[in-house]
Amino acid sequence: MLADLQGQIERITYTNRENGYTIAKLKVYGRRDLVTVVGRLMSPTPGEILEMKGEWVNHPRYGEQFNVKQFGKDTLDIIENSPDKLSEVDGIGKKRVGMIKKACDEQKEIREVMVFLQTHGVSGAYAPKIFKHYGSTSIEVMTTNPYRLATDIFGIGFLSADRIAEKLGFAKDSELRAEAGILYVLNQLADEGHVYYPYEPLVEKSQEILQVDRQVIVKAFGTIVLEGRILIEDLNPNILEFLENNKAVYLAKFHFSETNIATNLTSLIKAPKSIRAIDSDKAIEWCRGSSISPSRRSRSRRFVVPWKTRCW
């Protein structure tokens, strides 16, 4: 009986470039240990996600393995040009043929992303995440602005995107790098508990981390303000006490949260009071009644005191 298996290549133990025969270790969801896969895999690459059909076998020396069943070195050609032949394999119907063809097309595009990254000296392990988010526009995005990876894709932070950008030839003083770097610094400061950060210290921190001139940072500030990714507030109380660059810099999401909290608190303060007026003398007298003798206390229970006049 053939079984289905999907997993991500963790490492290649052995591969024969002539016939594609490969032994690979895969991460498979639901399994703690890596799975050994044996079969003809065309140009396998670490990080690549495979969907396979085969059978489980127990090797006397190497233990459990998954043997891939396919058409040998002609597999990809058959899938691309004669997918109907896949129905010759037991258990593969028309619906599954379509699914395999679709998966193959996606893997082909992922492979193109991998090749693009590897050509520029970047690990192909990023390819599945990048393709999952951008699809067929992956290479275009990386070519025009690789720093988008840091904001769009979980698990690829600024430092990783910066390394990719460097490999792709982006200059150290690139405005795109400065914009992404400022956002990175603000997020780092937010992790330390800062809702906003003073303008001048932020410029200095950004310069220190990015190692670029001040004018590059200042120009980048203007761009990301216009794009609505950060907001800058003037902290000067009045014109007579004006200090240059006495400003607070917020990530947009934190400014939105803080201003809305302030608005809601102001609304609560200004809301008409709905608490019933209390005669404090009578309330105090009633509270004192709790210390009277048991016999008097039992008699006092016949009197019902409105709930809102009770002392807390």
Structure summary:
The chain has helices spanning 75-81, 94-119, 127-134, 138-144, 148-152, 158-167, 175-191, 199-210, 214-226, 252-270, 280-288, 294-300, and strands spanning 3-15, 21-27, 35-40, 49-59, 63-68, 196-198, 230-234, 247-251.
Binned strand content: 15-25%
Biggest sheet, open or closed, and with what strands and sense? 5 strands, mixed, barrel
Number of helices: 12
**End-to-end distance, in Å?**
74 Å
Give the overall shape: flat
Helix/strand class: alpha+beta
- Order of strands, main sheet, comes to 1-2-3-5-4
Strand runs, count: 8
Query: In oligomeric terms, what are we looking at?
Result: single chain
Mean pLDDT: 81
Helical coverage, percent range: 40-55%
Helices and strands, in N-to-C order?
A: EEEEEHHHHHHHEHHEEHHH
Q: Nearest-angstrom radius of gyration?
A: 33 Å
- Model regions low in confidence, pLDDT < 50 over at least 5 residues: 296-312
Folded structure, characterized:
The protein is an alpha+beta fold. Helices cover 45% and strands 18% of the residues. The strands form 2 sheets. It has a 5-stranded mixed β-barrel. The radius of gyration is 33 Å and the shape is flat. It starts with a strand and ends in a 12-residue tail after the last helix. The model is unreliable at 296-312 (pLDDT under 50).
